[in-house]
Amino acid sequence: MHPVAGNTVEYHDRRENSIVELLRGGKGSLTGVSLGYVISALAVALSIYHLYIAYAGAVEAHAFRSTHLAFVMVLCFLTRPLRRKSWSEPVNIWFFVDLILIMLVVAVQVYTLWDLDAFILRRGDLTDWDLIMGTVMIFLLLEATRRAVGWAMVIIALFFLVQTVFSDHFFGVFYGPPNSWFNVVDYLFMRENGIYGIPLMVMATYIFLFILFGALLVRSGAGRFFINVALALTGRTVGGPAKASIVSSCLMASISGSAVANVVTTGSFTIPLMERIGYRPYFAAAVEACASSGGQIMPPVMGAAAFIIAEFLNMPYLKVAVASLFPALIYFFSIFVMVHFEARKRNLPTLKEDELPDLKYELKRGGHLFISILVIILLLVFGYTPMFSAFWAIVSIFVLSFLRRETRMTPLDIVSALEEGARAAVPVSVACAAAGIIIGCVFVSGLGLKFTNALVTIAGGKLWVTLILTMFASLILGMGLTTTAVYITLAALVVPAVVKMGVEPIAAHLFAFYFGLVSAITPPVALASFAAAGVAKANPMQTGFHSVRLGIAKYILPFVFVYNPGLVMVGKWYNIVLSIIGGFLGIYALTITTEGWAFTRAGLLSRLLACLAAFLYFVPYLDLGGLRLPLWGTQILGTVILAAVLFANYARLRKVERLTEEPA
């Protein structure tokens, strides 16, 4: 049966952008329209440049990274003009300030590439012009960071710059021998360690292509296809629209890597559906926010920081993705169970058959789009680089889109996707470059080692204290920094201390990665939650606090896999299996505690016992006086307690049902 009109969401949900508006006769002044063409042309040129490099092979590292950053900074100044909403506004003094900044970016890049070999040979022996150009570049980058990321990251970068140069004027762990501005510029500007270090390298080499892949995938209509398939699979079950939101957001955000963008894309459809069957607006918004933010931990693509983890640990990205797989699945499982319990508590109806898309019809129309995701997975499995995998995934989505009329992209769609990808990369690239300033300063000043030793001392050698301090640090940093910037800062300052205490490196880095993500749903600055609240017309703070409750797994799991690394595929095979099973059962027990439901409303005793069961599933061992209970022992004990809770509540439900069935 084909879905009736209005049930299937059409694939071509295409946001208008500057090039589309311009080609249709863009509005605004002549200057605004002309610059609009320039912005579009630069964005498309940046995308084509990266596609060419991915196909032909990388050029010299400094030339490649500096060219990428120069493109990005020009786009940043063009798309975020100073003291004006857009370039179409009347010309004023700030117009000329922006033009000067753009010319300075171009001048620095021309200076760098004019005689690249000589530029590289001058490392450690800078000329006056090197010092001037390096200083100008740092200033320009800080201004681009202010516009694209915000003041918080600028202030942090400035703090580390000042601390590095004037260390003798600080106290405590920040005190040390001062460094000359000459050394700072040499390290940050002349070498591939500071501004052009690992974060920007990963952004330019891998992440940009995956962002571009996501833009092309959306243009082909994959976003709406994912929603329709998710709704067809889950719509008949209790709380179907909420479960569809989880599935579709998981699929879409794992490709796009942006929680807020995914909220707006899928939430505009799933949130009204959830509200229609009876979910409260703030709850529906919280579901979408948690599901969308979870996409950044879901392989195959994940968020930008995952690629940086691979570089920091010097391991293939596939290993990072595999290590992240089961924690991500457990996280989505927890939200799935919570929305099911909420639907049961509120006795919400299921969707009617004629309100659901037809799964066979949807797969026939858009199932071929899944092949492009399989291309990424298979190429990574066979050992190819992320750059190679992303390039051929882009080629595949381009070819696959022409197999069906509903997904076929026009030339304008393709050009628009190239522009959207470049625009979306601007804040991420700027944040990565600014994070390079922080990492470079930490290295030059020697602060990293001192901070690690100080943290171990403050924690008294206790790992749990270090982890809690790290958690609070990430939540505070997350109020003003992007996910990638939070992770990089923690990786430079805190993660070495955690590893020094005996934690597996992959678990330590994923701990920082997870807590870099939770700021998207954690008040007071919960961007994904607030975006979802806007779609649902709900109270933002109420949505934020419910997001914390629904996303509880994201706060718990990092502690679990630090103490029990089997969850991230480290250790003997039987410990890995037990850890994964325990992870799912432990989260299920925890949802009973938070939601107060197990077949029927759970009482206080049931909730406390379920919480105890969750604890037993999560710990790697338990000391009971002189008796040490290993992992399998704690899980058996947890299973006995959880089974008792479920049996008691099921028996109570049956008793209530029998009493209601008996005649008066």
Automatic annotation (TrEMBL):
Keyword annotations from UniProtKB, A to Z: Membrane, Transmembrane, Transmembrane helix
InterPro entries: DctM, TRAP_DctM-Dct_fused
Transmembrane domains' residue ranges: 34-55, 61-79, 91-114, 126-142, 149-175, 195-218, 320-341, 370-403, 424-445, 451-469, 476-499, 511-536, 548-567, 573-592, 604-620, 632-651
TRAP C4-dicarboxylate transport system permease DctM subunit domain mapped to chain residues: 136-571
UniProt key word Transmembrane helix: yes
Keyword Transmembrane: yes
Coiled coil: none
PANTHER family attached to this UniProt entry: BLL3936 PROTEIN
Designated name of the protein: TRAP transporter, 4TM/12TM fusion protein
Organism expressing this protein natively: Thermodesulforhabdus norvegica
